[in-house]
Amino acid sequence: MGFNGILHYGFDLTLIAMVLAAIRQNTGYVFAYEQYGIGTYLYKYLGWGEWCYSYLVRFVKFSGKFRKQLPQDKFTQDSSTRIEELDRTERKSSSRRRQSRHQ
């Protein structure tokens, strides 16, 4: 494993730490690092993810490339509605199949 491999693993681990930081900030759930024997190292690792995530958020806020989501964007609302519609359609078709088998 050369320098590129170490760099790649470091980048991947940083992304995972940032995802864990985003989960903590958006939901309040934290990784239960106390359960492991290397708790102090995991605490430092999660701190690194918090720092990277806050740096990224600060960059995004002051960048001209991003804006607040507008109601007409409908990123999350549209996809959840589509999922609900597909789920309803799937339930109807499976209940019809069950009814036709029982008759």
TrEMBL record:
Looking at the UniProt entry, the stretches that span the membrane are: 6-23
Keyword set, alphabetical order: Membrane, Transmembrane, Transmembrane helix
A Pfam match: Mitofissin
* GO CC annotation terms, alphabetical: cytoplasm
Compositional bias (Basic and acidic residues): 81-93
Task: Name the InterPro entries on file.
Answer: Mitofissin (IPR013726)
Q: Where is the composition biased (Basic residues)?
A: 94-103
Q: Where is this region: Disordered?
A: 73-103
This chain belongs to which protein, by name?
DUF1748-domain-containing protein
Q: Which source organism?
A: Zygosaccharomyces rouxii
Q: What is the lineage of its organism?
A: Eukaryota, Fungi, Dikarya, Ascomycota, Saccharomycotina
